[in-house]
């Protein structure tokens, strides 16, 4: 199973939107993420539907924040992206009748669900403004 980088990429975009001082077009974001503008629009659509970003068409248009970063959590963005898979562990189904396989799959599934609950509860406590502040601290340290 391939990794899903949409969450980290959209967090990256949202922080750039906050710092950018103006709208960013899908083309600009696509260049920044090394992806197609159509992929950007499709991915940003969930964020727009939730009210985190807005877009304007035409000259001078583009994507802007509709809500400040201190009002958006990691969980908000994760849910706006339709809850991508957090873990790529999948149960084996080679021997569906084998009691050992059933016990292993049950243990892995239970543990994965517990880990997801813990991770998502932590996501709910992290505001994007905290990530942006961490970036600013790192930039200030580099400038010294």
TrEMBL record:
PROSITE patterns: HTH_RRF2_2. Coiled coil: none annotated. Gene3D superfamilies: Winged helix-like DNA-binding domain superfamily/Winged helix DNA-binding domain. It comes from the Bacteria. Pfam families: Rrf2. Transmembrane segments: none annotated. InterPro entries: Tscrpt_reg_Rrf2, WH-like_DNA-bd_sf, WH_DNA-bd_sf. This is Rrf2 family transcriptional regulator. It comes from Neorhizobium petrolearium.
């Amino acid at each position: 199973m391939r990794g899903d980088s949409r969450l980290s990429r959209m967090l990256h975009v949202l922080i750039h939107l906050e710092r950018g001082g103006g709208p960013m077009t899908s083309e600009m974001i696509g260049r920044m993420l090394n992806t197609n503008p159509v992929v950007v629009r499709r991915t940003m659509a969930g964020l727009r539907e939730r009210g985190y970003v807005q877009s304007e068409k035409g000259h001078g248009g583009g994507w802007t924040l509709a809500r400040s970063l201190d009002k958006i959590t990691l969980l908000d963005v994760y849910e706006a992206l339709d809850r991508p898979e957090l873990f790529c562990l999948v149960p084996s189904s080679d021997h569906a009748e084998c009691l050992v396989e059933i016990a292993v799959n049950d243990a892995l599934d239970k543990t994965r669900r517990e880990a997801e609950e813990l991770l998502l509860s932590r996501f709910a406590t992290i505001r994007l403004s905290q990530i942006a502040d961490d970036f600013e601290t790192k930039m200030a340290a580099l400038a010294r």
